[in-house]
Amino acid sequence: MTSGAAPYAENRYVLERRHASVGFLRTHAVELMFALGFVCQVALLSGSIGQVRVLVRMAVFGTSLVLAFALRGRGKPSPAVKPAKLVLAIVGLAFFNPNGNSLAASAAQIGMYVAILGPLFWVQRLSIDISNLRRVLLMIWIFQSISAVVGILQVDFPGHFAPAISTIILNQGRAYVRGLEYENANGQLVFRAMGLSDVPGGAALAGTYAALFGAAFMLTWRRWPARLVAVGSMVVGLAAIFLSHVRVALVTLVICAAVLTIVLAIRRIWVRTTNRAWRRYEAGTLTRLLAVLGVVAFFGFSWAIAVGGNGVAARFATLTASDPGTVYHQNRGRFIEYSINELLPQYPLGAGLGRWGMMNHYFGDNSDPNSAMIWAEEQITAWLLDGGVPLIIVYLWAIALAILFAFRLSLAQIDPELAIMAAVICAYDVGALATCLDSPFFGSQSGMEFWMLNAVLFAVAASSGQASRDQMRAG
């Protein structure tokens, strides 16, 4: 009996450890994914990673693929799952387009789509509650706030906090690289604020997230010292955007702020009339947001001028030099115009996979002019090349369902913290949609983060039982 008991006890211990590991993964997989993304982003700042740079860039995508196929379980699917499946079907059919690039580039492009949309499929299998959503937003906020601070220091103290610049940027030539530099307030030549990225101007994205998610915590935290820290991060984020010289980031943040204000204003009217407890928890939310936005705008811009010089004001003054349509056309609108007038008639059903972006850069073969690389400056062009008009329509449908669910949840009579988080994510979603007119947002890690955040929001609503049947069926 004694000799047989020891192996049994040992096997039981191993099984318990295995179950504990699986349980931890099911509870914290989303946080681990964001942490992995941050670690990989920081790793790319080193100029010594050499040949493994491609593997580092693909680590998060590969992990999402593994989770999508290996993680077991069932859960209530997000409204965006149906159009996401259609997106994957369209991209799968595009693999057989004779104009596609190499087999490796085409296969990698499909893998990218599966990885980016993957959270819609594997997040629903996890054990998710509002604490997961809170931790994810906190992780994003802290990391991006640090990145924004680093971006400010890079401009204020040239050469002391600068990472290794991406080889893709350097390969564009000296003239292109010089165009990414400007004089700071001390007359020193500096790169546009990079933050914890290897791309000049990369601090713009960090600044946007620091300001937006800082607003979320400013509205949900009850202690004033914590609120002041959140407001400080919003100031830092706005200053980083100005010092990055990326005008579209400022426009995106303004759009996000406007959407958040409108959603909270609608909630103020909608919930106050139907819930007597509203005044106890949320009466000052909208007023606080409006007051803080004014403070952040003043101090963020003043700080940026003090560090970056008058060139900051001159750079962003171009946004109001003409009407918005003219300004956009002069900067990014011509790429949309080219896609409509030139690419659309040639490739209404797509130009074939692997013909743009990093998949072409790493795996493509551009020796054949019929399948060579086509430059995609913004997301609409990228979708057109990959799957034509059908892909554009279906992917926009998926994004619209995500926005609609977050909006409806933000107006529900639920825990005020969850409602405010839903309102912030709704604003973030609209900002991401607007970014599609400037860059291939959904062809990058940012696109995966979009679907992770929205999948987590849906899972929280589903697990809490606080969303009505109509809200859960937003699609």
Largest sheet: 2 strands, antiparallel
Helix count, DSSP H or I runs of 4 or more residues: 20
Helix/strand order, N-terminal first: HHHHHHHHEEHHHHHHHHHHHH
The proportion of residues forming helix, as a percent range, comes to: over 70%
- Mean pLDDT, nearest integer? 86
N- to C-terminal separation? 60 Å
Question: Order of strands in the sheet with the most strands?
Answer: 1-2
Strand percentage lies at under 5%
What does the radius of gyration come to?
A: 23 Å
State the total count of DSSP E strands. Answer: 2
Low-pLDDT stretches are 13-20, 466-475
Counted up, domains total: 1
Q: Structural class, from secondary structure content?
A: mainly alpha
Report the principal-axis shape.
Answer: globular
Could you explain how this protein is built, in words?
With 475 residues, the protein is mainly α. The protein has one domain. The chain contains 20 helices and two strands. The protein has helices at residues 2-43, 53-70, 81-94, 103-117, 119-122, 130-156, 167-170, 174-178, 203-220, 224-244, 247-272, 278-282, 285-308, 310-317, 324-346, 357-363, 379-410, 416-435, 445-464, 469-472, and strands spanning 181-183, 189-191. The protein has a two-stranded antiparallel ribbon. Strand 1 (181-183) and strand 2 form a beta hairpin. It is globular and about 65 Å long. The N and C termini lie far apart (60 Å). 45% of the residues are buried.
